[in-house]
What we know:
Blueprint: H1 3-7, E1 37-40, E2 45-48, E3 59-60, E4 78-80, E5 91-96, E6 104-108, H2 122-127, E7 131-135, E8 145-146, H3 154-167, E9 173-178, H4 180-185, E10 196-202, H5 215-225, H6 232-239, H7 245-252, H8 262-266, H9 280-292, E11 297-303, H10 311-320, E12 328-330, H11 341-354
Parallel strand pairs: 6-7, 6-9, 9-10, 10-11, 11-12
Antiparallel strand pairs: 1-2, 3-8, 4-5, 5-7
Helix pairs in contact: 6-7
Amino acid sequence: MSSQRALSIxxxxxxxxxVSPTCVAPCCAGRRAAPAFILDxxxxxxxxxxxxAPPLPGVLRTPDARFADLPGYAFAPxxxxxxxxxxxLRVHYLDEGPADAAVTVxxxxxxxxxxxxxxxMLPEFVAAGQRVVAPDFLGFGRSDKPEDEAFYTFxxxxxxxxEFVRSLRLKNVxxxxxxxxxxLGLTLPMEMPDVFKRLVVMNTGLGTGDVPLGKGFTDWxxxxxxKPDMDIAALMRRSVxxxxxxxxxxxxxxxxxxxxKAGVRRFPNLVPDHPDADGAAISRExxxxxxxxxxxxxxxxxxxxxxxxxxxxxxxxxxxxRGCPAPMEVAEAGHFVQEAGAPIARAALAxxxxx
Length: 355
């Protein structure tokens, strides 16, 4: 690996806590590192180079064979490997529907899932003529997986999302969030209010650090910390009994062994639990923004069987989102409400069509 490629990741050390979107290679002299874009002449999509480069040292990349023939997931992979500040780290995303669609739907997953979670919602949005983009967080899905848990911070995940939205030049976006997709995703629109126009929010919250974490979450965090090699397929089968064994195994496909699960292990410990925690201040800013500045359309769906981010948490979140209507209650769904996602997507589309 050349010294310039090693440095252009934008970090003084690859896993330092100082995330900077600036290239520190000598030739750049502090300039923001520009992503290398190519335009696919067939799909008219912006894709970022070089997706064929090997992973950086200390970074794992799940073999493609792990993703072959997953049930309900016949979607082509797309990759961004030149996000400013993350050069050399490959971020996977789905990109379905017309490239020139008037509306883009941005779907953000949580822990321990990946874009597979949206396989039932995505076709509904595409059938409505919309473009759907669903990235995998670093450490998840088909995205690269740094082995060092110290890599994973609230700020770094958030920065990746911001650079992803900017680099793909997304516009007129419907933001679809659940779990960590909401903790992080709900902090994005205030940074680019001209981009985000609609919200679909499911079983999530804001990590403001000034509200006590509930027992359901602290129990989950303790459980997660006790399972460094968490059996993700078994967890999904317990959480969603209707899943087939093949579907549950698909959720575990990105994680062949314990080395690939650093991001999974880290997420529960990134929830801000005090006012000075990483992400707490920006989440409090987002809370104020959603309450006072948000002017887009909102749709809320609640998996009523969720013991952590279920009805009480969502009732509170609804009070923070200006103009949020009464939620769609999905009686039999738990935390992973997207497994009942097709009717939720259709209901959201119908609600937005009325605005």
